[in-house]
Design brief:
Peptidase_M20/M20A_hydrolases; Amidohydrolase; four-stranded antiparallel β-sheet; dipeptidase activity; about 475 residues; Aminobenzoyl-glu_utiliz_pB; binds zinc ion
Length: about 475
């Protein structure tokens, strides 16, 4: 692709996405209207798959042993570029597209993380690139990865273990948020565990001497971990909940269980802390004469940033429009009223950008990465992808300024208002994938950076051996 052609190719990609705008909006709305939680997102997955099949993609479902995962590929040739889409909802987040708290159905799921937009935005980008390949504007192949169960267990980690991301040159992906910026940061690697202790039940008053309390073991374990906590690096996070503490105070609990998550910036650190936690669990069993069943339920890597790809994303953002209509702008203002003071959230922005974010409920002007050199206190299954293929990530503004993820305001914005940011994401993805297909040098730089950042650590799946996502997520 000669430099003079690049602009024309991108304009054609954007026109394609504009022509598809109604279809993409409808698709995102249909998934929003029928929110499905992790591993049960079958209709959402099917809706995306059927569009891709219709468009001539070769679609294979079931990657990583997850029925709702799929890989859709168009093209036979190298290079191969890809994007990812999520589509799972969150339990209990049901909310109408209104500027007041009002569930569609109390207790039902809802799209509190914007994954209906995430899936369809990425799909829009992949479709446009496919058309450009078809027209002969670009050469190579494009892959859309349908990645389920982000909110529970991390579907991508299973897909990585299955080799779904092998033989891809680079991936560009995004997540809904309230600003438009590439990401240059990392996040925390993690491990998840279930510790179940088994003792002996007995009458707590009449025969305590014949009981062995599993709850005592849980409490001693938690106390042990609290004493350990001072002696791990500051950035580490260890959290737990008691899943089962027994049934009645007058019965010595014969079974009790506690769920743990261990997080730290480096995978090795997570493993060191996890081993310590497991030792403490074993010691608690010894102290209480109970048996321990320790099960690792999840594991993830932190994200390897890729500045070459983030810079390409950032440049493309400047070419993309953000056409909010009057009704959407008014709804955004109403939603902002419900969020209270956004000053805390605005502190994430450089001072020079805060005024613009104060002025409008939708902050659409693209900005530079906010997280360069930082390790965010969160984990994502995109981390494992980033250790296997160069991954460019960004955030697009689908929510009102300051909206936290997993809030009802995020759900409310996701049915229509957020489709503007979704189209912005589709265009940014399409343009960056076009750069990757046409520019050997960009691909080489992204690859070299990936090799350099991953040089001191060989990726090994953090999942327990033979892990079955369905069994682990239901625990
Ligand atoms: Zn999310």
């Amino acid at each position: 692709m000669a430099t003079s052609d690049v602009g024309a190719v991108k304009r054609a990609l954007f026109e394609d996405i504009d022509a598809e705008r109604e279809r993409l909006r409808t698709l995102a709305r249909d998934i929003w209207d029928n929110p499905e939680v992790a591993l049960r997102e079958s209709e959402s997955s099917e809706r995306l798959q059927s569009v891709l099949r219709e468009e001539g993609f070769e679609v294979e479902a079931g990657a990583g042993g997850i029925d709702t995962a799929f890989v859709a590929r168009y093209g036979e040739e190298d290079p191969v570029v890809g994007t990812m889409g999520e589509y799972d909802a969150l339990p209990g987040m049901s909310q109408r597209a209104t500027a007041e708290r009002d569930p569609v159905e109390p207790g039902a799921p809802g799209h509190g993380c914007g994954h209906n937009l995430f899936g369809v935005g990425s799909l829009g980008g992949a479709l446009a690139v496919k058309r450009a390949i078809e027209r002969g504007d670009l050469s190579g192949s494009v892959v859309f990865f349908g990645t389920p169960a982000e909110e529970a267990g991390g579907g991508k980690v299973y897909m990585v273990r299955d080799g779904a991301f092998d033989d891809v040159d680079a991936i560009v992906s995004w997540h809904p948020g309230w600003y438009n910026a590439p990401s240059k940061g990392s996040c925390l690697a993690n491990d998840g565990f279930d510790f179940t202790f088994r003792g002996e039940t007995s009458h707590a008053a009449a025969a305590p001497e014949s009981g062995r309390s599993a709850l005592d073991a849980v409490q001693l374990m938690n106390t042990g971990v609290e004493y350990m906590r001072e002696h791990v690096p500051d950035a580490a996070r260890i959290h737990y909940v008691v899943r089962n503490g027994g049934a009645a105070a007058n019965v010595v609990p014969g079974e009790a269980s506690v769920e743990y998550i261990v997080r730290a910036p480096e995978r090795e650190e997570v493993e060191r802390i996890s081993e310590w936690v497991r030792d403490i669990a074993g010691a608690a069993a010894t102290m209480t004469r109970t048996d321990l069943d320790a099960t690792k339920t999840a594991g993830m890597y932190g994200v390897l940033p890729n500045h070459a790809l983030a810079d390409a994303v950032r440049e493309n953002m400047d070419l993309v429009d953000f056409p909010l209509d009057d009704e959407q702008a008014a709804f955004a203002e109403d939603l902002r009223e419900t969020l209270g003071d956004a000053e805390g959230a605005l502190k994430q922005l450089p001072e020079s950008e805060r005024e613009a974010a104060r002025e409008s409920a939708m902050f659409s002007r693209p900005i530079d990465a906010l997280d360069e050199g930082e390790v965010g206190s969160y984990s994502t299954d995109s981390g494992d992808v980033s250790w296997n293929v160069p991954l460019g990530r960004f955030t697009a503004a689908t929510w009102v300024v300051g909206t936290p993820a997993h809030s009802w305001q995020a759900v409310a914005a996701g049915r229509d208002l957020g489709t503007v940011g979704m189209a912005f994401a589709a265009k940014t993805i399409a343009a960056t994938l076009a750069d990757l297909l046409g520019d050997d040098e960009l691909r080489a730089r992204a690859r070299a950076e990936f090799e350099e950042r991953s040089a001191d650590h060989d990726y090994e799946s953090p999942l327990p051996e033979d892990a079955d996502p369905y069994e682990l997520v239901s625990r």
